[in-house]
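Convert to structure. Protein one:
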Amino acid sequence: MTTTKQARSLPLPPGSFGLPIIGETISFLRDPNFVQRRYQQYGQIFKTHVLGRPTIFLIGAEATRFLFANEKHYFSDGIANGVPPQTKALMGNGSVVMQMGDEHLKQRKLLSQAFQPRALAGYASTMEEISRSYLHKWELLGHFSWYSELRKYTLDVACKLLIGTEAASDRDFGKWYEIWGKGLLSIPVPLPWTKFGRALRCRKLILARIEEIVKERQQQATSTQLEQVLKEVLRVFPPSTGPREVIESCEFNGHLIPKGWKVLYHSGTTHQDSRIYTQPECFDPERFAPERAEDKQKPMSYIPFGGGLRECLGREFAKLEIKLFAALLVREYEWELLPGQNLDMVMLPTVYPREGLKVKFWRRVQHG
């Protein structure tokens, strides 16, 4: 570790700022392998210019540990200064995601009550009820685009358990949520007909509806094999990454990380480190078996829900939902991918299949 004064004399990380003004934003948004390619070219720290800001990517367990260990010292403890203005506007200053310091910790402590083990235990029956409802619906449909249906399913579970309403019976709520989500990385022009303008309007509608229905809510499917499959899915396709603001110049691996820049850790590329994961390009749930436990070899080598002060608050809720849903799915139903579709993944704002994952779906024939 070096002093701030010494750090300023160090070279910037390797990399490219791309084109004037727009930098490498287009490639960042369109190329799902943007980070992986640059990691292979430059190593675990590189510079770029995306979403209007000079940015440094930190990749790998050591780099991620350096970032999370220095929150509040070199890096902001929140993402508010590291996200595009349109995302900040649509999230809102009162969002726990946007808040920083003591205010964030206070709100996080309040919200954490909904994700304690005693609360999660009370969610299982409702999750199962909603899961069965959707599985039956898909059986009747036969052919459909799975991604859009799964978004409806997860929204319905969250609304029912965390808000107290049923998104499935409130079509407006689901529609507003979709429009809001599409505005997170849109061009920030707040006109009524733009993506951003429509998203702002839907944010107001969502908040108004939530205010009407919010009330106190009362506060697990376990299988070792299912747990390993879940962990491998999250290794290959982690839900998100996370930005931080550099609040004091510092050094990592002999390179300057300047004050005022943005840094991003990248879970997906960190999870592809062949020094930690055997054949990381292969889907291998057994890597999480106790006798291998590849994710335990080095701290911060497995970070599907982030880490540090901003580790995902709802991670146990999400894992319970996925495990319960998957158990019902594989026990009672079968499916196959429909041919002739593009299976490439879109990486932002969250990971999803480009054409929605079209499937043929049917109930398994029970014998005996």
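Protein two, convert as well:
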Amino acid sequence: DEHGDEHGVCHDMNTHENHEEYTSEDDCEAAGYMWMEDNHEGHGDHDGVCHDEDTHENHEEYTSEEDCEAAGHHWMEGDHGDHDDDMTPEEAMSGFDTNNDSNLSWDEFWVAWNTEDDDDHGDHGDEHHDENETDGDHDHEEEHSPLEEAMEDYMSEMLMTMFNESDTDNSGGLSLEELEHFIEDIEAMEDEDIGMPSGEFIVGAFDEDGDSALSFEEFSEMMGMEHDDHDHNETHDENESDEEEFMEAMMQMMFNMSDTNGDGSLNASEVEMMFEMMGEEDDHHEEGVAFIGLHVEEEGDYGIALPAGVSLHVLMGDHDDHDHGDHDDHGDHSDHGDEHGDGFEWAGVFEMDDSTHTWSMQKVDGDYADPTMWLVLIPTDTPTESTMHDLESGVDALVDAGCTVVEDGESMASIAAEGSCFELHVGTGDDSTYTIDTAGITGMAMYAQHVPTEFERDQHYLKDSTGADIEPAAQEGAGAHDHGHGDEEIAFDPHSWLDPVAFAAQVEVVYTTLSTAFPEGADTFRENADEYKAQLMALDETFSSALGDAGTCTTDTVAANHNAYAYISQRYGVEFVTLHGLDPEGEPSPDTVAEVLEGVEEDGITAIYVEEYSPNGALDSLIQQTVSDDLPDGISVLTLYTMEMAPSDASGEDYLSLMGKNLANLQIGLGC
């Protein structure tokens, strides 16, 4: 044996088990088993071969793909990564022809295919076909999912067809010459990357109801969710139960993401797209799809730092009124009860001076943010921010009582004095509009299931009868309580770098981008990134020690001019009572001043923080109103540097030094 005994495996042809205790061909055959060569060593240093698909001959005179194809032949890459990449027909016949009749039967080939390099061929069939079916079936039931079994069936059918086509004399076995053609056909198949079944094949394998698509139940069965009853142990602890629930949730998320047309099922093209995203398992792609579960314990604005080239798909969990697994309940939208128990994402209050207004919802990037959205309208004669907050408490009851369905082009009419709930259904076009009957109404508080700007492409969501945009007198969005005025957009905190841990993640993104653009500097970039990340981690430790449980702070609540510090709040537990939406260069409104005064009285707030660019006189009125025996000079105004621009009051400062100043000022306001 020119390969040496160490390059083989001892195989039981009856049980299809390998016996590792026999390490030589002599010992293996003496025990009544079959010795099979590994044949993983290379046979030549060329990267490919030029193959004549008509004569099945190889042309070694052509050593490049260009020369080969110019001669009218097919270039086959040398590295096939599969069974036959370096195996000659002679070696295959010698290793697999167990009855030594100089013909390779299907059974002999099939056993070899499933035994040699089994890890690389989890997608190769284990069921024999028609006249070739024997008692040599591999029992993979316990280790293969239904999807893997379907892939095995597909591969078995493909190889059976190729085997029969190579058997030109119809003898039921392959001679050495026929085996050579068969191996070449396998290599050509692998070069063409046709080992992945089509979406039609996969759907057909699991489409139990015959509708040419996969429901979530059929999809779950395909992925093995309903077959995962391996009895690894007799007891299933709570952790195993949690893992099963997590896997089921992941399957639902994968299904929803793949259901691009939102019809509650996966057609053939959606199935193919899903496998493209995941990376085909038989190609061993390490990249694919990963899921991030976000458990929000505290209200605030958060960010996710992604490496360059990674895209994020947001999948809504517990979105009961869009359960892709079962759309039978979509005909009834009046009983929403707990479905809308999460409350509104957006609120706004508007002055009304027209008999009709138009609410718009538009497709953005080809899709609506959601096909339905409930909207609560409450008339008011005082369209102010305070009124908007005062009326919030009645929103849930109006939603729970039932929302009137309004289709595209229809009207929201007969709005009750105490308010009404409407459920807006988008149409099939790019734009959907709904008329609001506002005759005799001078103001309106509105509360929406989703932020209306999610549905804006090129038109404002609210207009009067002349087509003029109507802006809110005040609004808040997604729990951020940013009390905008006039044209101000709903603001979400972008200041992620104020959290040193988040900033360290961004450093890694910068490193990846720079290294990709300038690979010659990758080592220097890596060294600098690691050094700076170490400084950021040290800064985080300093903040945590000073502001955490081991610190000496007497309070955890301060005030700020607007919500620019959500990342500091989340990371270090500092609560900010904020004048949301306050222009740093403007004067605070009476309503926002009242909120801070309430915090001073109830929470013992002694300091309010402003950005480095805020004018000194912006909070004079507020300071005067906080003068008391405890605060003879009023509330202190301190600076927290956001570093959106270069420092205005110092030269030579950098992120680390300014964050040090931020910590010192926070310790003052928190009584540390």
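The chain is about 30% helix and 15% strand. The first strand starts at residue 8 and ends at 11.
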